[in-house]
Amino acid sequence: MKKTLLAALALGLMATTSAYAFQEAPMLAELVEKGELPPVDERLPDNPTVVEAIEVGEYGGTWQRAFKGPGDRWGPTKLMEERVLKFAAGPDGEVKLVPSYIESYSVNDDFTEFTFTLLEGLKWSDGEPVTTEDVSFWYNDIFLNEALTPTFETTLAPGGNPLTVEVKDERTFTVKFEQPYVYFLEILAQDSTVGPSLDRPSFIQPAHYLKKYNDHYASEEELAALSKEHGVEKWTDLWGSKGPIAAWWQNEELPVITAWKIQGGVTGNTVTMVRNPYYFAVDQEGNQLPYIDKIEHRLFEAQDAFNLMIVQGQIDMQMRYVTSNDFTFYMENAEKSGYTVSNWKSANVWSLVPNLNVTDDVLRGLFENADVRKALSIAVDRELLNELAFSGLGEPRSTSPVSGSPYYSEELEAHWTDYDPEAANALLDSAGLGERDGDGYRLRPDGKRLQLVVETDQDAYANLLELLADNYRDVGIELLPRVIDRTQWDDNRENNNFEVQLIPFDRLTVIPADPRRMMGENNFAAQYYIWHETGGKSGMEPPADHPIRKVWASWGKASVAKTREEADAATNEMIAEFVKNGWVIGLVGEVATPVIVKNNFRNLPEGLVEDNITRGVGLARPQQMWIKQ
Amino acid sequence: MLNFVVRRMLWAIPTLVAVSFISFIIIQLPPGDYVTAMVAEMRNQGEYVTAAQEAIMREEFGLNDPMLVQYWRWISKIILHGDFGHSFHWKAPVSDLIWGRLGLTLTLSMLSLVFTWIIAIPVGVYSATRQYSMFDYLFTVFGFLGKGIPDFLLALVLMWIGFAWMHIDVGGLFSPQFEGRPWSLAKVWNLMTHIWIPLVVLATGGAAGLIRVMRANMLDELGKPYVETAYAQGLSERQVVWGYPVRVALNPFISTVGWALPALFSGDIVTAVVLNLPTTGPLLLQALKMQDMYLAGSFILILSVFTVVGTLLSDLLLAWSDPRIRYS
């Protein structure tokens, strides 16, 4: 039996396409009249994707935003990313997968084959058709091209075996794996298929444009000449993260399928994106999207500069870099400058991360002791932190899936979060830390004072550490806060040179789309994780009975499960194991994420969860937003 | 004179080489490199980069080569082709990034220099000739305040005043609708409405110090016999003061003109960041933070060239203005 999950694509529209006249933006209609652009019916697919707009909008306008330089390219990207499937929020806020530039998709019984059918008549932004030739090009000439893809993303090569692609016809192709891959669709919705980079679509690349830059088609001399022309040393430098050719945010000529496309690259003080006349989606009344003509991002460096832009009414809608710290300031000026502050909820939990691999043996012994971890957790007055450091906009909780996540559990959320300094003291006493020095601090078994150096790279949260220091002094532990530079902070973790770090632990919604954080990657057991990932070649091996092995084993089970139920059960096991061990000490999470929305800016849903996995503001489908003129 | 100029210019070359070399090394001293910074940023944004990919990137960017090789790759292109290399972070030629911002930086800096002098010289002269008068005390107080208040704080306060009470658009040098548009009269006017805050901030900071210098120099000069002689000749106070002691007292101004150039270029970075100015300062800061070494290196090199040229310039000016200077 073949289980076909036909997408719920505005069925009403499909049958009547020919009779239906699509509408388009006035600026495009003008071009059509001048003969510079084919009519809208020829530009749109036969059955365009329907993005149900909250309220049918008007065309036009420029959306003003701010961005922080090329490193912030995901700010602009998240407004317009396209994958074969995307996360979207349903009317009740729950997150579901919706097809984007495909007509349908199907999955076989044991989750080893995924078949996708591209929209009939789908076109690149230069008007060329998107076909499976673009899929083959992506697969044979980029993905399997060692010069361009020297290593495979683990997400695209589960168990070390990369996916294979089989083209059926002009629009249909099948992606195959050697083992079941239940969560592949979620991963596709989060991640692109060309890495490392999130700003590309899945499975397709514009072959007609890129062929001349690819060594399977162009000769060595041609490539050398092109490299010279673009001022790079090797032709591969034109691609990937360095590529002035293959990255949409550098090359305005690169054909894309997104609602907007870059104009002029990213070197000036503004980054501009303009509408793609061939964008494949319409609203429920057949108006081609997007509604907004243009998006402009102004460069800023300092938070104060950005905040001033906001209170001067220069930002039409933005969530990124709008902080809950400055909430009052935004509110005070909202009326005067004609905006409101809407609220989303962050999927981050601010957490303390003790390093299980710390080089100090005594400290490592203590961190490995569950009683000590519990004491560290219940010694924290989370209500106080929430009130004083987050203006009461968050909630005290553990580092576990946030509410609204399909993996949310009330019990896990409350794990070790009740403030109880007495019990914490008792736990520490019984853990062999009963001796105290003249200042009332506990002594470690080796006679040194029990001190924890806690690092953060975010000076805005230094006050959080000061409050924590008070809490820990009450149980005889000296917390030494260190606000350090970002590079140093990352470097310390890379080189296993930290005791405790303060981090916003993220990706707590659709856990299987990126479970690596819970497996220790880049945080509480970075070295163990490296050992696990490299098959023992580097990193540190955890003891044979170490509970982190259970976390890995559970994920191992989930990642080869043959059914969704089986996989989810294993994922839940993994999450429970991670949370119950309390390796990461969650403090305050689900903090309100303020969103600045100008009074004439429409169609931004309220109260959704902001997470990297669901692509931030992308969850709200920006192509259906509009500005009342 | 010509001999002097040529000799000074020749000396500048080894100085520049040494400075460029040292600056290139200094940029690389902090832990990690550009790939560390970039990968960390990518991971934070949800991109997944394996250690193998990281190693490949390092190889691609040429970060594994010995520092001397990297230095040579950079400096040889500059010397041979005038090519300052590529910025890793911006993925663009360094020259595209720098020269575009330089025009605005120079405009802003020259204006603020002129502004500084317009304030500092008359006030300094007044304070010296009317020593211990009420206005002398008043200027002294203002001078110390100006020196004591950090520029960025003054910038914030002025921005707040502009925003909250004067209801004008503050921050940056242009309103959103003019940013990135071709020059027009309206755009120049828009620049004028924005440029006064940075001007006031930069000029007050500089002027506060210079007032004190001017006052002290003038006091030294005013007591000298030639001044008394001039008065005895029956010249008016105005003729005496502006004709002789002021010219001598200006000497330190002229000899530091050269330093003004690099200061202008780096454009008081913190202030520029706070005011969100599209000048060179914030770009340099970011380049250093990201360890974008070719961009940062190029900045520092250009800064050094400016210092050397500036010093040469002030030496020449000094030689011209002060007959006591000899060329050997």
Automatic annotation (TrEMBL), chain A:
Main location: periplasm
Gene3D superfamilies, A to Z: Dipeptide-binding Protein, Domain 3, Periplasmic binding protein-like II
Keyword Signal recorded: yes
Subcellular locations according to the entry: Periplasm
Residue ranges constituting the Solute-binding protein family domain according to the UniProt record: 96-502
Signal peptide (residue range): 1-21
Keywords carried by this UniProt record: Signal
InterPro entries: SBP_5, SBP_5_dom
Record-linked Pfam families: SBP_bac_5 (PF00496)
SUPFAM superfamilies from the UniProt entry: Periplasmic binding protein-like II
Protein family according to the UniProt entry: Belongs to the bacterial solute-binding protein 5 family.
Protein name: ABC transporter substrate-binding protein
From TrEMBL, chain B:
Membrane-spanning parts: 9-29, 98-125, 137-168, 188-211, 253-275, 295-320
SUPFAM superfamilies: MetI-like
Compartmental location: Cell membrane
PROSITE patterns: ABC_TM1
Keywords: Cell membrane, Membrane, Transmembrane, Transmembrane helix, Transport
Topology of this chain in the membrane: Multi-pass membrane protein
Span of domain ABC transmembrane type-1: 102-318
Keyword Transmembrane among UniProt keywords: yes
Coiled-coil residues: none
Family: Belongs to the binding-protein-dependent transport system permease family.
The name this protein goes by in its record: ABC transporter permease
Protein's organism: Roseibium salinum
Source species taxonomy: Bacteria, Pseudomonadati, Pseudomonadota, Alphaproteobacteria, Hyphomicrobiales
